[in-house]
Design a protein that fits this description.
This protein is α/β, with parallel strands linked by helices. Helices cover 46% and strands 12% of the residues. It has 28 helices and 21 strands. The protein has an eight-stranded mixed sheet, sandwiched between helices. The longest helix is centred in the middle third of the chain and has 22 residues. The protein is globular. The chain binds ligand L4473FGL. Ligand L4473FGL binds next to β5 and α11.
Amino acid sequence: MARYELVKRSVALITLTNPPVNSLSSAVRHGIAKTMDRALSDPKVTAVVICGENGRFCGGADIREFAGPMRGPPLLPLLDSIEAGEKPVVAAIEGVALGGGLELALVCHYRIAHSKARLGLPEVTLGLLPAAGGTQRLPRLIGIPAALELITTGRHVSSQEALKLGIVDQVTEQNVCEVAVEFALRAVAKPLSSRRLSALTVPCPPDLDALLEAVTMQIQKKARGMMAPLACVQAVRAAATMPYSQGIKRESELMATLFNSGQARALQYCFFAERTAGKWTLPSGAQWNDTKPREIRSAAVIGLGTMGRGIAVSLARVGISVIAVESDKKLMETGRQMVIGMLERDAKRRGVSASLNLLKFTLSLQDLKDVDLVIEAVFEDMALKKRVFQELSKLCRPTTLLCSNTSGLDVDALAGVTDRPQLVIGMHFFSPAHVMKLLEVVCGPRSSSETIATAMSLGKRMEKVSVAVGNCPGFVGNRMLKPYSDQATFLLEEGATPEQIDKVLEDFGFAMGVFRMSDLAGLDVGWRVRKESGLTGPDVDPKNPPRRRQGRKYCPIPDMVCEQGRFGQKTGRGWYMYDKPGGTNAKPDPLIQNLLETYRSRYGIKPRNITDQEIIDRCLFALANEGFRILEDGIAARPEDIDVIYQFGYGFPRHRGGPMFYASMVGLERVLERLEHYHQAHPDVPHLEPSPLLKKLVACGSPPIQKWREHIKTMHSHL
Ligand SMILES: CC/C=C/CC(=O)SCCNC(=O)CCNC(=O)[C@H](O)C(C)(C)COP(=O)(O)OP(=O)(O)OC[C@H]1O[C@@H](n2cnc3c(N)ncnc32)[C@H](O)[C@@H]1OP(=O)(O)O
């Protein structure tokens, strides 16, 4: 796990060998301890270079080991002993030096980085802090403000920025090991005391308290209840105010609290869930690692509304040429200006030049004859989409992939009107598509494995987190949203207010409560869907809208809000009021309060006090319950996929893991008991009836989430 070689007759070259990222597993720590001892005790060796195999220095501690008991040599004393050694040690950083990997580099007396390397302390993103001396050494090296920023955000820096900050001593474009060996030879005669970071005093800003307070306030605003960033601030405060020996103790204490927290478990689960999500498998046996995607060089986007524009930008910025189609000249011109502006701003932010030459705008579908792939992003209307697909089928090369950005319509029905159903697939982007990371790849029953592989790989290239899901109304994300938002509106009937519910959900950690989110998305969208499905329409008595429809409980309040022309932010009024149409500053609206009171008295509902816990339980358990149904229906392959969709598409707090992980943390028995309780109270709400899979898992002793799949195996897969 650590290879030892003697090079240039006097330099010990220690190579970490734990693919793919040379993480510091117990075997690697053991290997480092052994090889360092050998180097320090061999009189022939005058200096040491540490590097990593396969172009990666070290990706940090082995995160998989966090779940089990600690084995092998602990990292902190091992690192302290490297720093204390009497022979110069040089870190040769290629690829990445992250977390424990950077902490290892910080105890080396010198650091040489390759120009393409990235460095950082991302522990905070795993619910932890850099507890192998990172919070104490980095401030001593680069000062409190810069260290605070890196440690509390977990941001990776380029080697050029690392050089500017003083984290590395040299950046090279050449073979970093060779450069480090030469460097080490030159360092042999030099004193090491000033190179031992733990012995340095921290350069302390005069306004330390004010700085720490400002950072704490900033974090409290942004972190939505995450503990780790605040613990990082405390650890850095210790570096600034205590000697190293005490600071390191404080670092360990803070780490101990974080390490055993549910938040750390959730964030580490998210790390692996995100990586697992791309690994799709079909019932046929085809899967992500044995199906070659097609290469996509050119694409078309049909429709230059909000979604189409974002998709065009996401394609062009990764080097794919895009033909954007609109049906009307004025709309096309507006779309063109918006797309160009977005692409220019995006390029400026990334420090690259905007790839405007890759864009073409047209009014004619005829121009799409030769593209590799088309993404349809027209209005959410099945008849219109079918017409577009029929036409594409006639016009495009027989090998062109036809994709729809529908947010919930039947992808197979679209495939059915084409001459190539195997090349039809859903690519459900989230708004704004050039910002949101999530892509649901909706596999129809006839989508070929090559088509799925191509859509997944295109998503990855577009820097999206892509999740393969099955085809059903609303797919995964929007299907689950219905029971969640239904509970919120039922709670309004019973006595809650939009602002109360939103506050509880936002305090839980959601980026936005359900009502603020609806205002942002536009209330008319759901209203149109309800009209199309016959739930509401001209036949409904506006004075006395029924509260039971299609055999189940129905809350007419959202329709009543829409009937007043309140469509959310875009109209300046929705569940909240805004300063102006398009405004974003939501304020409680007395008119909504009035509407709710009138409604309750009309139906003789006595409002009651609703606790925060009831809001959380009803909204989130209804959400997870639908997730269990999605798993048993085979629409999502794993609970991890659902959780990734909710984090990246719906603002579910990452430190809670996602709806399915949250359910597992609360305890499946409790989720089942609460759902049974609420279903008894509301027997006409089918979404509250516990799903068979939930019952089955509880009956099997509530296995950990990673084992749920074994209980779903026998059920039908739509993937
Ligand atoms: C007391 C000591 C405490 C120390 C604290 C720490 O060090 S915590 C760990 C800090 N390090 C990190 O957070 C880095 C995590 N890794 C990454 O950010 C990325 O993986 C990467 C290193 C930038 C590489 O990215 P890339 O896109 O090239 O690859 P993947 O992300 O797909 O990873 C490849 C596989 O490697 C697994 N993996 C990555 N890092 C770790 C790790 N630190 N421990 C364990 N496993 C790791 C990853 O899960 C992938 O596995 P697959 O099975 O192939 O999915």
